[in-house]
């Protein structure tokens, strides 16, 4: 099958050829003809399958005819996070270079006024996070009655982030006769209900079973000790000794730990950036950009980066913390081994994580091999001590012995006797849905479902604050 058989316009085919893609991915092959036939589509596909182009390419073809009117976008794409929204815009910029389309982003953390000006000029494609979109409609600056095509992307992520009520509100603001394209990696009951309510006789397109891991990703686990500083030491050892490490995303469960680990790795001389939901939009974009360009080859991130971000050629993923939710594991390690490339995912496992690992192994239908080599680290004093000695400037300024420092670049391939010798992951077999996974219900939800706007992609982590600081305070009257 080639792209030219799918019904795409000549302009779009030329843009695809310019990117160098010759064969459509399975989701593109299956979805594009239905989108062009103006059918509703229910796409069950993970990121990394080429699903963005599966809706961007036919949308570009459809949009060649017609013009946008002020404040009335012709098409609307809903994304759960700002980064994903920005990424979809990049796809429009890339494939739509030959067309004069107005593409606007409505995401939090960016000036309202600038967004409003863009809307006034007329928008062909509006890419938005739900909260900011509703803010604009409530202010009267945006009318959704002209939307001919609605895309709801990463719907299960929207569910996790508490956006489903917002999505339902938005669906009621767009015309009943619109075409809807709905993408999700998994089909929990709440998502099924939404699809039954808002899709009209959809064409179902499924490209891979939910919650399976790519066979191109080699998975490993190493013991991490009970304390955070032990895990940091294990991580440094892994980074220094990993084979073919070009770049890596290192996942933490909490934003606070992202900041601590980022600082620690910097202190040890690694070239590293960080990404979590407490950072402002420009800092997040800057970090992603530096990582994408390879200027900073290590990215410490919370789960906000786990889903959907298209960063091609990530060679390694490290789980500094084992995720509490098994499906987060699948999404995290899905950042590597994309589009048929190989990748390595290594999880640092503390004794307390054993239950989570068991649940993950059950979900992915395979056991995660233990790395060969000695990774035990003694539970000695923490030489990083960001958490325990925050004001101990004198001790910190003494720093580490020079031989323990790492050069400001991650080292190139260096075979080592202690280097983990990965065992190739077995072919995944069908796994239970993450939301039916009994192990999941035993776990406290680390990121509780919550109705939120897109001010942030994660809940504020107040766990480190004393309770009295969290009590509401009544402001004095002026
Ligand atoms: P996505 O699932 O949309 O995040 O896409 C994953 C990656 O696959 C992105 O880097 C795309 O640029 C790439 N991609 C999309 N379509 C194709 C294709 N037909 N052939 C090769 N790579 C593709």
TrEMBL record:
Tree of life domain: Bacteria
Residue intervals passing through the bilayer: none
One Gene Ontology term of the molecular function aspect: helicase activity
Keyword ATP-binding: yes
Region feature (Disordered): 376-478
Alphabetically ordered keywords of this record: ATP-binding, Coiled coil, Helicase, Hydrolase, Nucleotide-binding
Database matches in SUPFAM superfamilies: P-loop containing nucleoside triphosphate hydrolases
Domain Helicase C-terminal: 234-381
Short sequence motif Q motif: positions: 1-29
Domain (DEAD-box RNA helicase Q): residue spans on this chain: 1-29
Basic and acidic residues composition bias: residue spans: 383-414, 437-446, 453-464
Coiled coil: 228-255
Compositionally biased tracts (Low complexity): 415-428
Location of the Helicase ATP-binding domain: 32-205
PANTHER family membership: ATP-DEPENDENT RNA HELICASE RHLE, ATP-DEPENDENT RNA HELICASE RHLE-RELATED
Record-given protein name: DEAD/DEAH box helicase
